[in-house]
Amino acid sequence: MAARLLVIGEMNDLTQPNRIVKVCDPCAGTGGALTVFADCVHEVNPAATVVTYAQEINGQSYAICKSDTILKGGNVANVHLGDTLADDQMPDETFGYQISNPPYGVDWKKSKAAVTKEHDERGFAGRFGAGLPRISDGQLLFVQHMVAKMRAPEDGGGRIAVFLNGSPLFTGAAGSGESEIRRYLLEHDLVDAIVAMPNDFFFNTGIATYIWVLDNAKEPRRRGKVQLINANGIYSKMRKSLGSKRNEFTDEQIEQIIGLYQAFEDADPKLSKVFATKEFGYVTVDVRRPERDEQGEIVCKKNGQPVADKSLNDTENISLTENVDEYLAREVLPYAPDAWIEPRKQKKGQLLELRDGGVVGYEIPFTRYFYEYTPLRPSTEILADIRELEKSIAEKLQKARA
Hints:
Layout (H helix, E strand, L loop, with lengths): L1 H7 L2 H4 L5 E6 L6 H13 L4 E8 L2 H13 L7 E3 L15 E4 L11 H11 L16 H10 L10 E7 L1 H4 L6 H11 L3 E6 L12 E7 L9 E6 L5 E7 L2 E4 L2 H13 L8 E5 L4 E8 L25 E6 L4 H9 L7 E3 L11 E2 L2 E5 L3 H4 L9 H23 L1
Parallel strand pairs: 1-2, 1-4, 2-3, 4-5, 6-8
Antiparallel strand pairs: 5-7, 6-7, 8-11, 9-10, 12-13, 12-14, 12-16, 15-16
């Protein structure tokens, strides 16, 4: 599915005669994703030459990947062993296509020194300029690494398909490393689509997973927008489970999802929704209320400004599509007419975006957009079921006594 999404978005590029296609997987494992991508490319252009690149930290997986590359006639010099985050083995390479399934929820403690140094010393000239996520989950570091490796738009652009769990969608408040990375991706219009996969789809995990499709040269109709596709309910049950993998796609279901992607704003709204990138942004403002004395009078500082009551401190997340003053007047002041917004200040070493007195953040609450309310059953129906159940139990007890 990920490989198909990569290919379908660049048919004009991939179908050129004698096309040479560079593709990389920075968390290659045994190289399976690269093989699938190459097969997809050859389906649309049998004459294309697919040149694969890979880096893998696990020695055994690296050896299998290298052996597979030899068997397929590839260049084994393009297969590298090492920690992608701490020791990029392809520092000068960029790619038109990248596909990967980085580890979910795995800490990056072993890479911390090198990653932090690159972030602090090189900023956006390095790979991790947008921010550093919490140490317990390095998924968004791999995303940044891949973004840094995208072929420049003037050279044809780069396209990425990467599997992530749900955490990168929303973890982290405004100003956090995760939120800052999302802000960078969305404000630079790099996120093309996100596809929610079925649960129990992978051998080693049954958790919810998503395919993020990134593109730095979007076609005109997709610019400034992000498509969310809910394929969570599109699957077929396997006859026999393989580890945690119990579900799979049929060819028809893959075509259905690809069809949703191609239809874009005309797709079935129950399965696909399109948003302007700004709709994922919000500003977190600090709402304060005054401290009052025993007589109920507002306590003021020497300069006449009210003293904030720390026990009443609150925050509000206000969409970037809303006016902050209008939101305050509608949602806060009717219930706390003495409230005000305390402007945030930029702390030393921070490069946060401050707006309307607050900090800008981004999140993608995927499941909220596709939530469908299921009304509760009428109480009369529930009561009738209970009485029917009681009747059935009474009859069984009576037979047992007979």
